[in-house]
Amino acid sequence: MSSNTSTGHTPFENWLRRLESINPAHIALGLERVKVVLNRLALKWPVKPLIIEVAGTNGKGSTAALIAAALGEAGIKTALYTSPHVREFTERFVIDGQQVSHEDLAAGLDAVQAACQTDIQLTYFEYATLAAYWCFHQANVKVMVLEIGLGGRFDAVNAFDADIGVICSIGLEHTQLLGDSLRQIAFEKAGIIKQGAQVVAGVMAEEALAVIRARAAELNATLLCQSEDFDGSVLGDGDEGELEFEDLGDGTLSRYPLPQLPVECAKLALEVLHLLRKRGYDLSDEIISAALKKTTLPGRMQKVQSEPSVFLDVAHNPPAALYLRTRLEQRPVRGRRCAVIGMLKDKDIEGVLRICARCFARIYTCSLPGVRGESSLRLTKALREQGYPKEAIFAYGSAREALEAALPSLESQDELIVFGSFVTVTAALDYFESKGVDLGEKGRNLRSESAKKSRKNKDK
User: Per the CATH hierarchy, to which homologous superfamily does domain 302-454 belong?
Assistant: First the structure.
């Protein structure tokens, strides 16, 4: 693809259109295409960077962000690759806390396209992954933290040899692609384990952990499991709370401030950071504490309004819904707690609603756009079948319509939770920005003149 601007658009904008035409929802698992193109790119590193790959049903984005933030705080040139994005395509590609420029990303995509030659056709996610690697190579980063997009074994990110693999959690999701049992899904996630690498595993069902243990043993990888080799506990709460982290191997204890991201993700990130410290990386407790205090992600219980309070959360499957419910139960509200929820067709809608619907006095369901977007009618039907009171359900054709209906009905002491999908959160961010709400640093970092062109690209 040419990068000329004869169309009146920048090379980056032309690439967004090209990627959208591929269909971001299309998934073609397998590493062969990526490895062929990677070989043709022939990227030579002065010093090979350390690679950390983070997989899991939930928590991988937050875990990866915390690891990268601490490395960046230590002055170590670090790249972070995540997916999907919330508003801007470049959210996926970050070096030292800054999104890769449009110009650099377009150049990376050009290089990948040239390496495809005439015989390789890549998916949206494969283009993005290889362009990320190209950009990180150009910047000569020292550490790459790469989030696995889907599964593990055949995910494009797995084409790179990771020194440390993290498997945050195992739950039932994408069963049509990964299998319909925890053992099958664990087998796919365990595919990120490399020969002789270190592997960090979060809390999960023993049947899933057994699969990971077997794969680690087969590859002579060192497996470190939460509750067996490391663990953490919360001491106190609020601003005075602390996270006590224990290395069960040597018995050392460290205390850190409570993170803004989920505590379970912080425990995994801390284990990785302690492993890096043992490898010689300068990661003091002060550096790690600073990263824990400041690291946030859009759409993870992101507060966008007060009186009434409005929070946005991307919870979109049963494990995430359970975590959301737990957090809500730990936070009493003075008034009513209501919800706006929109979901995608291929998610476990009934499972999510079964877990958390009773947290809310009212639920405003909304339809989501696109071929994957589910209608508000299905969500309403699922709520009714589960015995949720009919008079407390309100259905709307879009997230904007649902918000416009819900917000005027709230009193100052009430609370609104907007959740169910990255798409729902994106629509909510758009709505509040259109109303002149200051979204804070998280929102400002996501703004760009091309955001509208890339918002619909959600590939998970």
Answer: Mur ligase, C-terminal domain (3.90.190.20)
